[in-house]
Amino acid sequence: MSLWSSRFVSLILRNFHCRRCGHQLLGQFRLYSSDGIVKRTAKSQPVQRLEKCMNVSAVTQTSLSTVARMQKGQNRSLSRYEHLEFDDVEEAAEKALACPAVRQFIVNPDLAKTVVNCLDPNLADSNAVIFECNPGPGTLTKALLNAGAQRVVALEGENNFLPELQSLENHLNGRLEVVHCDFFRLDPITTRVIRPPAMCTTKLFHDLGISEVSWNDDVPVKAVGLFGQTHERNMLWKLVYALYERISIYRYGRIELVMFMSEKEYLKLIAQPGYIKNYRALSVLWQIACEIELLHKEPLSSFVISSGSGQLGVRKSKLPNDNLCLVRLTPHKNLFSGALTPDNAMTFLVMIKQCFAKRSAKLVNRLNDWCPGCGPEIIKQLNLPPHIIVGHMFPEDFKRLFEAMEHSKEFGHSWLYNEVLVYTHRTEFLI
Length: 431
What we know:
two-stranded antiparallel ribbon; single chain; 7-stranded mixed β-sheet; alpha/beta
């Protein structure tokens, strides 16, 4: 230690208030000698940097850990109330473009903060574990931590993003856990040995110490991210199958999804009866299963899209002003309160898909195909118009139809139930 640093104490700080509770923490900076006389001697470079940080108006956005390292010359763990500095947008964009796969990234801190506010304005008080799906350069990761998230699990599928995320993990006292895993490749359909970034949900949740909870309990996990532009519809189908059968991630409770998706897919999810172009089987299934909430719309230009070759990618869209929509999908507590259960959910899924194979057809014709002569009776029992078209039925009507079929002896022997065996065989390995 130098003679100068051994003779002076440089931490008399006051009048600095915590952003969360207003409690007085730190403040003005002065130099004091060991004999109590204030000195005006030349200041070291770290001291000058610290004074500059304390005087700027945006001091609450400065990483206090960085200040500490400038003073001590060493690393230390960060407390929950210390804020992380964001990378420069251009620097984060360069890291994103280096991704060897076609992906979309959030690199703008302002957009990241918007997502966090939409996810939960009181994130610091939430007990739910946050799964961040493919965080990339970590802009959203830092926004989540700065907002006070108690536990963030960064599921990153690309190796080139892992070192920086793991370095951040080492200074956060367990608030951040980094796993080499692609959320969208959980529970793959394969008979081969599963290796990262693919992973089984049972292993992931076991390693993280997350246990199964009752369906009526609070949301245990919130997954936030962006659906890939090439597989968002496939992911929506995969997830809705898992939800109804309570397998994969939904084995552990009502997992909430907060995902950016294309405006085109969002409009299909919320489509209403009569709008034949967009109202489809996926619309009915998600509307029955979840509360669907549009949280935010963001222009495509706000995201960086990697092409896999180090160049800026371009997202194709049929809509003139396409945006990415941040959508919350929260499973209903009463989803399985009636005749619908995880055990017979596959039958319900097949029924919906079979109905919408010809969504302009009359419902009575579809019912008679499954059980000749039974259609008119079921429709009358449900108080539906005799010649109602499939595409004009509300989601709750399909659920009532299924319950009526479940209690009907005639439909218990129809070919529809045999068809379920094919789908069950395809997904039994996910349990």
